Amino acid sequence: MSLTKQIAKQFRAVQTGGNWTASNLQDALAGLDWQQANKKLDSFNTIVALVYHINYYVSAVCKVLEGEALNAKDKYSFDHPPVQSAEDWNKLLDQTRADAERFARLVEQLPDNKLTETFVDEKYGTYYRNLTGVIEHTHYHLGQIVILKKLLQAGH
Q1: CATH (one of 3.30.70.100, 1.20.120.450, 3.40.350.10, 2.60.40.4070) for 3-153
Q2: Domain locations in the chain?
Q3: Residue 60 CA to chain centroid, in angstroms?
Q4: How far apart are CA 129 and CA 122, in angstroms?
Q5: Against a cut of 0.90, is the pTM above it?
């Protein structure tokens, strides 16, 4: 199996399961309604904000893989549209799932030699660094979502 196919498989696993950590975004978000996902606990980000934030970077990298310019800014990565209904929440989840599969398909189509090339600009490093960075970023925020969900379920 090519390295790009392995990276795509690893990304799918953090999204839907089958990874080494036995934790994935789909399971973590299962059973959460839009009010829970919006609930602010202390100074932590809401689950809505974290889901949007994760997908902000997935979507940005997808656009680069599709030949567009990198058009993402950290300062906007939590600026999600309001989630004020189950419909809004489901729309965010559907978009997140669709972008995740789009990302995985685009990655697995890349030739392995692309991984050592510069991603957009030298300051961002290689394609490999950015593609695996998206996986690391998702795992990082997945952990936060899991903890927030536990706190919500405990009545906090």
Answers
A1: 1.20.120.450
A2: 3-153
A3: 11
A4: 12
A5: yes
